[in-house]
Amino acid sequence: MLAWTGFVLSPLLFAAWVFAGDPLHMPFYVMPVVAMALLAGVLWRRPFAALAMLLVFVALFELVVGTQLRATNIHADMRLIQMVAVDIAVAFVAATSRRWVSVVTAAGVLVVQAGGVVAFQIRPADMQGWALQYVLAMLAAWFIGNSVRQRREFAQARIAESARAAVQQERLRIARELHDMVAHSIGVIAMQAGMGRRVIDKRPDEARQALAVIEDTGRETLASLRRMLGTLRRAEPEPGAASLDPAPGLADLDRLAARSRDAGLHVEVRGGVDERPLPPDVDLSAYRIIQEAVTNVARHAGTPRCDVLVERHPEALVIEVVDDGRGGEPAGGGYGIPGMRERVALLGGDFAAGPRPEGGFRVTARIPIPADAP
User: Fold this and answer.
1) Are 55 and 109 within 8 A, CB to CB?
2) Bridge-partner residues for 306, per DSSP?
3) CATH class of the 163-231 domain in this structure
4) What is the pLDDT of residues 348-374, one digit of tens each?
5) Prediction pTM value
6) Are 37 and 68 within 8 A, CB to CB?
7) N or C: which end of the chain has fewer CB within 10 A?
8) How far apart are CA 304 and CA 263, in angstroms?
9) Where are its TM segments located (predicted)?
10) Domain 250-368 belongs to what topology?
11) Do 50 and 85 form a contact (C-beta atoms < 8 A)?
């Protein structure tokens, strides 16, 4: 509203200076400068409208008072002020529009300026000097605006590339963790198959039990592979990077809370899951999401506590990590939130993270539980 109000008042103020004011008095410079400054709000939102209004000011000044003031310094000063204002608008167009649009705009404005010089200039020497100034100033304005646009596009490209790198890094880490799970499952299957083969003649009950374990382990591993491996890219793990420890899960939340308390952050775990086991990939991802969210609280929230809620519903596992800290995004963006979002997306769930209206920050995740899970 303020921007468009300034857009309406600007021509009124400039017309008052041209028609009713006394241009020979130096204090009256304030009126045209303020009139052009009122276009700043519209320039930010509608640069072409502001640029068109500035060109109207140029024509109005030359048509009404330009002839009277051509022999004074006021005429040269006003033309210089207007040239700077027009070039600022062209630079803003170059900074916010496509290159071909800004080139056409700059060329069109330069033609209008050159036409004004030819139409209103008297002496050829003055015409040559002003034309050169217009060309040089326009080139400088366009290059400055175009450089700003290129830097902004480069920064956006770097942000997008960083996000892609974060997703890829998280996928590779998930792949290494899934590799450990699959290797364990195949080892169990191999041991049970060997034991069943040795006792199938003498102890058939034990052989049937071994086959049941093989069936359950195979189905569970196959379900995990079907949900995750199709979305992961193959990559060789770094030497020594794979851990030999068992993959963590929600059963390790108490240890996570204890470690956080040692670091000065009190983590209150509420809810929890029942005795029914979760699929390994869901269990591992849920733990990693909580771990990353608690780590962000410790690093960025500036609060001594946070609450972790874990609820298992028949169709989904719901996770919520809430704090009452500063409530902003982690400084510098970071890869934690993109990594958590990627984990949830790989499992077909929903993820949200952001400041709470009452203060603090909330991370929520809803991970579907397969229908064949216990």
Assistant:
1) yes
2) 267, 323
3) mainly alpha
4) 899 999 888 888 899 999 999 887 665
5) 0.47
6) no
7) N
8) 10
9) 25-44, 51-68, 80-96, 103-122, 128-148
10) Heat Shock Protein 90 (3.30.565)
11) no
The residue length of the chain stands at: 374
Cα separation values, 16 from 61, 67, 209, Å: 11, 18, 98
- Measure the CA–CA gap between 308 and 272, rounded to whole angstroms: 9
The encoded tokens of residue 126 equal 């003055």
| Domain spans in the chain, listed from the N-terminal domain onward | 2-157, 163-231, 250-368
Q: Tokens 């060309």 correspond to what residue?
A: 135
Q: Record the tokens describing residue 49, joined without a space.
A: 């409208």
**Cα torsion at 365, 368, 369, 372 (round to 10°)?**
-170
Q: Which amino acid is at 31?
A: M
Across the chain, mean pLDDT equals 77
Which comes out higher in pLDDT, residue 28 or 301? Answer: 301
The residue assigned the tokens 């909330």 is: 362
Tens digits of per-residue pLDDT, 60-85?
777 777 666 665 667 777 778 888 88
Q: Is 106 exposed, middle or buried (0-12, 13-18, 19+ CB in 10 A)?
A: buried
